[in-house]
Amino acid sequence: MRKIPHPNSFISFTILFLIMKIRLQKIIADAGLASRREAERWIEQGNVEVNGKVVKQLGSLADPSVDSIKVSGKPIPRKQEEVYVVLNKPTGCLTTMAEDKRGRTTVMEYVRVTKVRVFPVGRLDFNTQGVLLFTNDGTLAKKLLLPKYKVERTYKVKVSGMPNEKTLKRLTRGVHIDGEKFKPIEAKIQKTSGKNCFLIMTLVEGKNRHIKKVCEHVGHPVIKLQRTHFGGLNLTGLPLGACRFLNPKEVKVLKKLVVNEPLLTTRPTKKKR
User: If we measure between CA atoms, which residue out of 133, 131, 136, 106 comes closest to residue 118?
Assistant: First the structure.
């Protein structure tokens, strides 16, 4: 008499099968090919194949140890050791992984300490210098950039003129520019320089040209901009244009910043009379 498998056995197998499957964009990011966001674009553009079939659906699952996964016709490499590098980015170079069509220098020309393909976590403008993190850890990179984790970025900013106390308080409340909300920025005067001054500004989100837009909006355009801190990283002992590997303690600090899902705060409801 044939033994009928217990229903729970089938359920256990199904659960185990699903556990082994991973989101496709995470597999690509973990392989060090791109950030998870960039991997999502590749999937939507039809550049990713699983077992010979093009996959365009975000959230599709695969098992990298079994499935054949290709990006632009090339098999993805097996997951590499996670690498973390910090660069003291100089001015006059682009934050991009691609070659510039106009022949301008890119940040990748300064990050040659590893053969592993790493990508920048966020970006700094062409004429902004300072702390820029590189990694092949797509999961950590994505979380570090999410405003909900409130990872601090600190900048030393030379601005035109001398902001008064009212202007500084305005920055701490956040500003609206062309209908877009820019979150509060902690700002204090570090020192004066003739008719201009240096500000220390700390924020927890990094929109495109964030500091420059906000400073111009309050009447004090940026003259020079340097990012001095990102999360627990700083520029100590790192000359302009130089890079180095993060030590295990620094990596642990970064991961600790995003280890817990932030609690959602809700406004108390008013009692009806």
Answer: 136
Q: What is the overall mean pLDDT for the chain?
A: 87
Write out pLDDT tens, residues 87-145: 999 999 999 988 899 999 999 999 988 888 899 999 999 999 999 999 988 889 989 99
| Domains detected in the chain | 10-75 (3.10.290.10), 84-257 (3.30.2350.10)
pLDDT at 7 over 60: no
In the residue annotation, 125 being an active-site residue is answered as yes
Distance CA 237, CA 219 (A): 35
Q: Which residues pair with 87 in a beta bridge?
A: 132, 243
| In contact, 159 and 197? CB cutoff 8 Å | yes
In contact, 89 and 113? CB cutoff 8 Å: no
Check 63, 125, 137, 178 and give the catalytic one.
Answer: 125
Identify the residue whose tokens are 């290709």: 70
Buried b (16+ CB within 10 A) or exposed e, 114-128: beebbbbbbbbbeeb
118, 207, 101, 97: CA torsion to nearest 10: 0
